[in-house]
Amino acid sequence: MKPVNIGLLGLGTVGQGVANILIRNANEIKRRTGRDIRVTRAAVRNQEKAEALNLGIDITTDSQSLVTDPDIDIICEAMGGDEPALTLLHTALDNNKHIITANKALIAVHGNSLIDKARDHGVSVAFESSVAGGIPIIKALREGLAANKIEWLAGIINGTGNFILSEMAEKGRSFEDVLAEAQALGYAEADPTFDVEGIDAAHKLTIMASVAFGIPLSFNGVYTEGISKISREDVEFAAELGYCIKHLGVARRREDGVELRVHPTLIPEKRLLANVNGVMNAVVVQGDAVGPTLYYGPGAGSEPTGSSLVADIIDVVRGIDANMLHRVPTLGFQPDSIEPLNILKAADYQAAFYLRLQALDKPGVMATVTGIFGELGISIEAILQKEPDEAAIDPAMCTVPIILLTGSVKEGLIDQAIERVQALETVVEPVTRIRVETL
What we know:
By secondary structure, the chain is α/β, with parallel strands linked by helices. The protein has 15 helices and 17 strands.
């Protein structure tokens, strides 16, 4: 059969991983597909640097010529960023080429239009490598769990954030200290906002939720909160209560809609997800038939991400001559059954909460605080009061940290409680709030 020709947009870390895997495992891949698959061209910014890799690939700096090349069957985008990647992929689709991308931001924000255009042209869009690196979570949701109604999923889907929280928990270090090391090690960018403020995880959660629930890609509906305000004290107090703090992406189907949220979360230390450390990723998926399943592995890197991208290439090649109706749908559901379910607002989320407040060490403070929660019908599951801060110059200003664990409650109600507690003259700092999930 005619070989399948691949064009690479970008030959950096991920692009090199793809090329190396396709070359190294060429025979094994042919056994799986029945066809030769070869990277014939790559578009790059630095031609001299790319040619020095000696991959036997035609190198060009003209991306436009790559996506319109009639000899190329599949375009693999490993450039990253919004533009020119988006325009190039649209051009590739207009030229009837299948597209595969590792660009989670592109799929989360612009994926609906790409998928629609691909369907119009009878070609495929694939993006396994855009979520959780080498973990085949998209394929698991779309195919392996296809018999199930997915109830919820929760994942550690950003390695940088997980590395920071793991170091804080294991070594008692501060957020700022670990972030500096993560940048030095190359885990975090010079501007770490996408990682530590949850934007990267929100992109990935958007994609997983769409495939899990059969809803349009809805990045603007994701509630996003980062880890930059997590203190060493919160990590220590959580451990005393039997919990670990992880930065989770959570998608949950409810009768009144869908929750899409990314935020720091207390989870019981006995849960497997609580023991995923360093830069590793993991996702738990709850199906109505199978129950909970766990997917664990490296969330980034040249060959782990390249592995997922090449797996997409293999899937596309297997169905390259098939009618669109005989291919696995891009989002796992037939296009006319994708339903725009109600994306719930944060005030309607249901969760338990960890609350830390700094209060003056005076009689009656605890009773006043718990009274507010009682008036609002919020149950308190645990209270932890630490030793007072003896460093205060004025004994009357001596403060004590108080930690509360609430029962499950609507977030709008907990907002009311926090507003009333913070209005007390005896509470001297803003209340720290972290959601609790038992998974």
